[in-house]
Amino acid sequence: MKPFFFIFLVFFFATGVCAQTDGLQKVISVDFRNITMYDALRQIEARAGFYFSYDNQFIRNQKKISFTAADKPVKEILNQILDNEYQYIVQNNKVIIRKKEQAAVEVRGRFVDNSDQTPVAYVSVYVPELQIGTMSDQEGFFSLKVPRSDQLLITASRISYEDTVFSADNNSDRELNIALTPHITEAPEIRLNTVQRHWLARRLIGSRQKLSSINLKNYFYQRKFQLGVLPGIATKNVLKGQQENNFSFNVLGGYAAQVDAVEIGGLFNIVQKHVHSVQIGGLANIVGGGVNGVQVGGMYNYVGDSMQGVQIGGLVNTAQQHTGGVQVAGWYNGTSAFNGLQIAGLMNRVRDSSTGLQLAGLVNVAGTVSEGVQLSGLVNRASKIKGLQLGLVNLADTLRGVAIGPVNYHRNGKHALSVSWQENNQLNVAYRSGSYTLYNVVQGGVTFAPGGEHYYSFGYGLGSEWVLKKKIKMAAELVNLFYTSADRIDLNYTNLSFQPLLLYQLRPKLQLFAGPRLQYPMPGKEDAASVQDALNRNMLAINPGSKDVLYLGWTVGINIF
């Protein structure tokens, strides 16, 4: 029984293998007339009854072909349209097409200086067409495995030396001695790009990867997809930094020349040139050129050129040139010029011009805000602003708009120390600051009541001022004052005063003002009413007997600049 079962298994598997092999021997006829390689393979699938699996990075799907065959095996047709460069693996009704493995040779040698025969270290050795390469060691020695070919050319590049091209020696036992010619120029300057100068990137890339990018500053190649672990451990080793990818996935971190679609890194992504579309890094993204799309970093995003789109960083976002779109950071956003929305938990900073909204928990700083809003929990600062500042402290050299906050200072705006006297024997000292459209009034004073009793007041108000004639201006102010006395801190008496003022410019830094005052006592404690007679003395009650009595008085004073 056992011998019979064994023979059955051998027969079964042998039949399966023959069936799989016979799939490629199936005879078909084709007539391809200027169609793409993709369409040609689809027609073969339909006639042969199976489907192909292959890497379109090696087979050019859009290549146009013309080919006719009558009653030929599938394998023969494939060999002819694919130039006999591939091998085929049959699995049931699937045929896997793979590039034939070429015989390889290990090219070994040493680089020396042509002038004095001293070793040349850290030379980039590569085959541009195959995107494979390595780097010589400190003694100038190198070893590179390449396909065996009589026509394969290898390039050697090193900063301060001329590029040298040599052919691969098929005799792997012989070591080459390659002389490099120095540049004639005196002391050539080594220019690092933005990424290589960056404080974090230069620590993450590694010296060999950095030297390779310097040597190969004019060499880049394109790939649709790459998978990496860390710079120097990825799919193309020292050439990795020269790779322009459509899709890039880095387990921990990656270093590439450019990304044109999507890049995702477990910890960090470093790109020499530009990023288009999406870049996501678990901790940090560092881009030497510009970003057009979305950049998300768990902690830190850096763009050496312009940022267009959305930049989100857990802690910090920076763009060295213009930013258009949205910046959102837990701590800090920084850029040269800005157009859009900046949101930061602590601080937003724009070195030059800004248009849009700056929203920060503590501080907003900008050069020129052409049209926009600065909104912060503490300080807003701008050189020139056309728009709105809203914060505890608002500062600007030139303001064309409105600033709202307890402390506003604008060099071209209103800032004056005022001393005034009211009809009820109240002496006031106030500081007016802000824009002429809307300025702050911070006021304190003392009221000399009958019987020698004194009442002290302090409060805050808003005002607006405009020009009537050359030396004559008009202002309107609304001030809320709180009153107390030396022996009654809990007096709890407040009033709200509206005062239209006429101002006359007596001297360049001296202004006289006067005007009526409409005062409304705010509801308070019942015993506070006992002091109203003293505080409303010499004022005219407009609606006596009413619950909400209005009092009319006057004020006169001077503004000192």
Secondary structure topology:
Layout: H1 2-25, E1 27-36, H2 37-48, E2 51-53, E3 64-73, H3 74-81, E4 86-91, E5 94-99, E6 104-113, E7 124-127, E8 132-135, E9 141-147, E10 153-157, E11 164-167, E12 176-180, H4 194-197, H5 201-205, H6 207-215, E13 221-228, E14 243-250, E15 253-256, E16 258-265, E17 268-271, E18 275-281, E19 284-287, E20 291-297, E21 300-303, E22 307-313, E23 316-329, E24 332-344, E25 347-360, E26 363-376, E27 379-390, E28 393-404, E29 407-410, E30 414-422, E31 426-434, E32 439-448, E33 454-467, E34 472-485, E35 488-507, E36 510-521, H7 532-535, E37 540-541, E38 551-560
Parallel strand pairs: 2-5, 6-12, 13-14, 14-16, 15-17, 16-18, 17-19, 18-20, 19-21, 20-22, 21-23, 22-23, 23-24, 24-25, 25-26, 26-27, 27-28, 28-29
Antiparallel strand pairs: 1-3, 4-5, 6-9, 7-8, 7-10, 10-11, 30-31, 30-38, 31-32, 32-33, 33-34, 34-35, 35-36, 36-38, 37-38
- The total beta strand count reads 38
Nearest-integer average pLDDT: 88
**In angstroms, what is the radius of gyration?**
40 Å
Helix content: 10-25%
State the distance separating the first and last CA atoms.
Answer: 117 Å
Overall shape: elongated
Specify the number of helices.
7
- Structural class, please? mainly beta
* Strand content bin: over 45%
Task: List segments where confidence is low: pLDDT < 50 over at least 5 consecutive residues.
Answer: 1-21
Biggest beta sheet attributes: 17 strands, parallel
